[in-house]
Amino acid sequence: MYITKINLNNFRNYLKQELNIDKNINILIGDNAQGKTNIIESIYLASIGKSFRTNYEEEMINMSNENATVSIEYVKNDKENELKIFMEKGQHKLVKINGIKLDKLSQVVGNIQIVIFSPDELQILKQSPSVRRKFFDISITQIKPVYIYDILQYNKVLKQRNTLLKQIRYNNSLIETIDVWNEKLISSGMKLIETRKAFIEKITNKVAEKHQYISDSKEKLRLEYNPNCTTKEEFIDKLQKSLDLDIQRGYTSVGPHKDDYIFYINDKDLSKYGSQGQQRSGILSYKLAEIDNLKEEYNENPILLLDDVTSELDSSRVEKLFSHINEYQTIITCTDIIGFNLNFKYNLFKVSNGIIEEVKD
Ligand SMILES: Nc1ncnc2c1ncn2[C@@H]1O[C@H](COP(=O)(O)OP(=O)(O)OP(=O)(O)O)[C@@H](O)[C@H]1O
Ligand SMILES: [Mg+2]
Fold first, then answer.
1. Ligand 2 centroid to residue 324 C-alpha, Å
2. On the chain, which terminus has fewer CB atoms closer than 10 Å, C or N?
3. According to the model, what pLDDT value does residue 312 have?
4. CA 29 to ligand 1 center in whole angstroms
């Protein structure tokens, strides 16, 4: 699949921008703070339904305006489509696909498939497990959009159980109702655990294979899902054992909201023993595997978004990444193209203070 046109109104520093992009490789070049990542963000928003930079959607609306629109025209299965997002300060955003309003915002995911390479994500092995859970949750959502509902449901039950735990501290008789909430937590939690497990099982060989290539066969990479509870029985048992402490804390300490994912390089935990470069390469290998995974699932090529990767990866990694992009629509942002071996055809755009112009040679 590929995008043909991006239309922005009052989005970040773009007041009115129409951008026709090529179905192959597009490079957006510009100094810092000109609006390159804002373009990547607008495509991400149309694909995933939210920003990768902020949880506050109002930040995406131009500071001097009250509302914004992002429209992405794309071709999928040889059919032309338009996904349009309307944002207004103080309101929930509204999304239309081919003019028809979506009932639920979660229906955005599953329409435009992307794989993003961003400086932030290259660092996730240094971050907390919650950052990694979010990273993989988004990845899974693209393959299985209904997974969003499972997450929302689990979080709702978790919140209610936590409220109950706090109430039990003051009113011990309420403890009788905990079993009901345990059952709900376990049934919604097991859905997450099973989906995560199946996803990692499916992608792990692909990740290993990509890393062989990235590391010139010098390193062996393995990705593992590290669930807090593996089975229903373990979940029940752990909830039971932690009940007293959970009541004291007013917080559920057991369940998939405590899961993590571990990358092993040559059988050692990459987050603990890997160098910064090795950690970035691990994520890069994962991302390359994600491309294949999406392609397999949808029978369509995903769109690749490469935000500022040339500043985060060394030239050999960049070249290995670039050698993969030829068959995909790719949008690359960078401050400079000098120093890279760009042995492919590309369209060049200059980004300057919220205005984009194509550079013709
Ligand atoms: N809501 C907004 N309204 C107006 N301008 C905004 C808004 N949000 C961000 N900006 C502006 O957008 C610019 C940053 O854009 P962006 O992050 O895309 O830069 P960039 O070109 O990717 O830079 P870098 O090379 O540093 O990554 C800044 O000038 C910032 O002030
Ligand atoms: Mg940027």
1. 22
2. C
3. 85
4. 14
